[in-house]
Each structure stands twice: as C-alpha cells, then as structure tokens.
Amino acid sequence: MSTTNKQDLYRLIEEAGVPVYCQDPGNNLLALYTGEAVLVKPGLTQRDELSALAHEYKHVLDGQPHLPRYLAPKVELACDVFAAELLIDTDELFRLARMYPDEPGRIAYELGVTDWLLNAWMRAHPISIDSEDLVA
Asked: What is the pTM for the complete model shown?
C-alpha cells in the first residue's frame, strides 16, 4: 500500500487553497471538485474516500472542475491514472499479482484502492504475463 493516506490528501488539497467539505456531491459521485471546494460524500469506505480524494486532487492541481465523464473522458482518465500512480505501490502490486493472479478485486482491496483505480493503472501500464515483475 502507498504511504499516501487520506490525511495527506486533505492537507494537500487544503494547502492548494481549496477547502474540503463532508457533503454529498450528488449524482452518485463519491467526491467532486466544484472549482471552489471539494465535496466528499459522507460515510465512504476508507478505500473509496482515499481513491476519490486522490482523483479530485488532480482536478485541484489542474484547476479543472468536474465535468461528466462522457463530456471529458480524457480529463477523467488522467485524474484516475494520477490517483492510481499516487496511491499504488508498484512493488506491492506485483507481489499481490503473483499471489492472486485471477483476483483483481482482491488486489485492489489489499492495495487500499478502488477497482476503478486499479483498472486505470493497468490500462496506463500494460504488463506482459511473463513480465519479470510478475516472476517470483
């Protein structure tokens, strides 16, 4: 698991001058950067909250408020990949992939991220089945 935790992300977002509020962003979103604040849905699991905060942090860094994924797929994918790279420890990912080769949900859970972010990492970093990283 990455050493980045949710307290780090709250601090980084707030250091960028953006307040974070525990408030439902609506539209079945986990979190949302409005351009003025980040809204985080109350009651999220640890990994949902961490993954959503990392994704929204990229929006904050880019000064890009939320747009629906279908209107800005490249922006949303870039935020997903950024969040995945921030949160996923590559060595741990490969260790878990050797242990659970057919269980991506288990790997995401063990890494402390959502399945969505693990999928984003895998799309951005395709690996061969015979990659040396996967060989024990």
From this structure: 0.89
